[in-house]
Amino acid sequence: MTKKKHPLLRLSRYGRKYRVLIWQAAICSVLNKLFDLAPPALIGAAVDVVIKQDNSIIAQFGITDTFQQLLIICIISAIVWGLESAFEYTLEKLWRNLAQSIQHNLRLNAYSHVQDLELAYFEDRSTGTLLSILNDDINQLERFLDVGANEIIQVLTTVIIIGGAYIIMVPEFAWMAILPIPFILWGSISFQKKLAPRYADVRDKVSVLNSRLANNLSGITTIKSFTTEAYEIERLRIESENYRQSNRSAIAFSAAFIPLIRMIILLGFNGILLYGGMEVINGNLAVGTYSVLVFLTQRLLWPLTRLGQTLDLYQRAMASINRAMDLLDTPITIHSGNLSLPTSNIKGEIQLKNITFAYNERQPVIENLSLNIPAGDTVAIVGSTGSGKSTLVKLLLRFYETNLGTITLDGIDIKDIDLTNLRQSMGLVSQDVFLFHGTVKDNIVYGNNTATEIEIIKAAQIAEAHEFISNLPQGYATIVGERGQKLSGGQRQRIAIARAVLKNPPILILDEATSAVDNETEAAIARSLEKITRNRTTIAIAHRLSTIRHADCIYVLEYGKIVEQGTHEQLLAKAGVYNNLWQVQTGVRVNI
């Protein structure tokens, strides 16, 4: 098994195009910290002026007047504070804009990648888990870049600058201030290693929690109808408690960092305070230099206590980066072909040659199946539940790849055709109708936003939907609700048919397109199907045989194999499987 790269390396590889911006932000962080560290030196210079006056360091430059010396320090202080503030503004702006840019592009890239994954990927994962990665995990990265990255750079700058100042100014006891630093860094690294698995567990727990919430909100009607509200609250309580306990474990460990580091820092600070003070009393160290050392020690060591919070942000971000990058690294198994095939050039002849397909290495759903669908014909596929009817549709649209055999469109292997062109050539009306939250018009024009009002109304009329749409409160501007929950099943079905009609594809696939409508609506749709299917290849999958009796050819599918084929009259004459299904549906009891 290949060892996973460090999250920062994975992020760095992803964010190559942001390197200039990262360097600009990092340089501003360093410069801001340099000017932030200048005041202790200015305080030391001021003390030196007050005590030594015309023998001070500044006096060595020819300025002996005490007031002028202090005025110069004031002017330098104003410049330093001004530059510090300017770089503070710049670094905040750069880091925050960087965080927003990376967050924005990472979310778009991750979502785009998710859209390219095969359906099997979604069957193995919950919607809540994917939402957690696309939203919460990417937000964790933003929070780290907003604050944590700048904190780390400034701490490193502080250690290097002040450590160097100690070595230059008082090399004989610089070790007192520097000695705690290796222990602090060692403690920080140790805490980081201990925190990493804890925050990985936190990210896993929040994914499970989000999955539960997303699943329950989608199934709220079922929850209410089965009066399982208390049961679902208990299940949510368990998942939320698991998340709380996982966070508690990480927090307990993270919170211990600052108190422990504070004790180590205290040793270095007291060492400088005591030893340096005695050196001043003994005349071996200037008061100004001692003042600078005390201030620098505080500026060096106390900021290290914030490492706990920074590490907390860091570890949360690293756990989230791994999850986001794992998603981006998920291989795409269904690749687009290179052959461009515009819809206007497609005739619609489909051939399936010796097709075999199984889901996730199970028993084959379709086995060695061959059939020919001439261009412009209406072909129906019927059979019992689980016989592989809907699977054929998924294979035609390349939602899944065949295990064996080939599928051709106008004599071209569909694997060679540009995937967008292939799917644009087919209009699918599924039994599981999905409407987006928005207006009726938004859902009809979905995929064809350039359609005119006249074209939209005509499509709705063909689908027998115009009349009920006109009677809605706002007509075509009526909000349908999430998944179209404000409409009846038959209304959703007719809007889906109108959407397919407006798309005007050369191939129309009706997968149980009338399964959710009443007999009257079914009859109306059946009348419109004559118009819809004219001059286009149509594949109709149906349980209701009355809706496909006029098909040019009917294939009867059982256990992934074609057991009968012919017209409605021919199949009735055979007195086989189709005939039995027909008699059952028309109310004639048959002994089988």
UniProtKB/TrEMBL annotation:
Pfam families: ABC_membrane, ABC_tran
Membrane association type: Multi-pass membrane protein
Keyword Oxidoreductase in record: no
Localization terms from the record: Cell membrane
CDD domains: ABC_6TM_exporter_like
Domain ABC transporter: 350-584
Keywords, sorted A to Z: ATP-binding, Membrane, Nucleotide-binding, Transmembrane, Transmembrane helix, Transport
One Gene Ontology MF term: ATP hydrolysis activity
Assigned GO CC terms: plasma membrane
TM helices/strands, residue ranges: 21-47, 67-87, 147-167, 173-191, 250-275
Domain ABC transmembrane type-1, first and last residues per copy: 23-316
InterPro entries, per database record: AAA+_ATPase (IPR003593), ABC1_TM_dom (IPR011527), ABC1_TM_sf (IPR036640), ABC_transporter-like_ATP-bd (IPR003439), ABC_transporter-like_CS (IPR017871), P-loop_NTPase (IPR027417), Type_1_exporter (IPR039421)
SMART domains: AAA
Protein name: ABC-type multidrug transport system, ATPase and permease component
